[in-house]
Amino acid sequence: MKRSAAEIYKRLRPLIGCKLTRYHRVYDMLMFGFGDYSLHVTCPWRIEKPNGYLVAGLHDIYLPPKMERKIDEGADYVAWCDANRTFRDLLLKKFFGPVKKAGGFRKATVVENVDARDCGDIVLTLTGGNKLVLFVCRTRGESWRLLDHRKEKSVHFVV
User: Fold this and answer.
1) Of 42-46, 79-83, 87-91, 126-130, the least confident
2) Which domain holds residue 76?
3) Domain count within the chain
4) If you write DSSP's letter for every residue of the chain in order, what string do you get?
């Protein structure tokens, strides 16, 4: 679905100032919760530190949880993904820190800025200059969606 950068920015702007309260995944779809909003990501993505180093990305899900272990070509990668114990899961847990029982993380992560492109790519600048970057890489189908849960029925903005 074609969306303009201005329209995407308008829909993402309410995220500015929102705290990341949760993240989880279903297979390779990553879901971030920002209070009354959820961002569901099915396109390539990465989290960057301010110095340009990568924290984690989409394809880290295909790596075993212990990188010192030799990658076995006959290994059951689907079992790793199903069990929420991939290298990506470990990287994200290390980056965001443990979850508090009351919700949210001990290390606060807030959206400080949003940027969008006409092709659907977005950049969420987070606390400390870290960035969540999403790359749309298909001409048809869904790449990501923002859900607004403030109303009785959630509003879905799909790119």
Assistant:
1) 79-83
2) 5-158
3) 1
4) ----HHHHHHHHGGGTTPBP-EEEEETTEEEEEETTEEEEE-S-EEEE-TTS-EEEEGGGGGS-S-TTSPPPTTS-HHHHHHTT-SHHHHHHHHHH-PBPTTSSBSS--BEEEEEE-TTS-EEEEEGGG-EEEE----SSS-SEEEEE-SSSS-EEEE-
